[in-house]
Request: fold
Amino acid sequence: MDTLAGLLTHPGIWRGRGLARSDTHATGYARLDDALPGRGWPAAGLTEILTRRPGLGELRLLLPLLAALGAAQPPRWVAWVSPPFEPYAPALAAGGVPPGRLLVIRAAEPLWALEQTLDSGACGIALGWPESGRRPVRARDLRWLQLIAQRHRAPAFLFRGLAAAREASPAELRLLFEPQPGGARLQLFKSRGGHREPFELQWPVPHRSAGEVPHGAA
Reply:
């Protein structure tokens, strides 16, 4: 029985809405922590954030995590792979994210670039926009990326359109994001437990989102 109990706590074991333990990072938002299984973002593997279009404020969800990982020792990169907007350094710095730890990668094949970035072991976190690439996002590419992120014990966040909700994904967590005045409406689309009903999150202070300045803008 002890062996079975130990097996059921392994993060690779799915128990429906069960309680298999996994390492997490606090989100910085108490309401979101309460809703997520393990009370935080998965510390390894893929998380998908699905939105109607980029630049609706979804990056505010990750500012506290980016700040915490950006300040961690030993230093590791916070990688942005093929973002549709130029990361806005003043807003990131105001949110506590060290600009000197940012690595922005432009690639025709974002999933391949994400694999190389995570496999290097030099990144504490990777953010990716795979649908900006030249070819469709394939399930086998996502599975491989999930394995690499788990092997290196690093979180990878993919920002995808709502159409991706119709496709299967190996991601640890899939979250639907809808902007609201002063916050967002969220729903866990796929998770290992957690709160499945939609809920609202309020931003603590109004500020410009880190990803809402178009590429090339001053």
Q: What stands out?
A: Residues 139-151 form the longest helix (13 residues). The chain has one domain: 25-202. Helices lie at 2-8, 30-35, 63-70, 89-94, 110-119, 139-151. The longest strand covers residues 173-180.
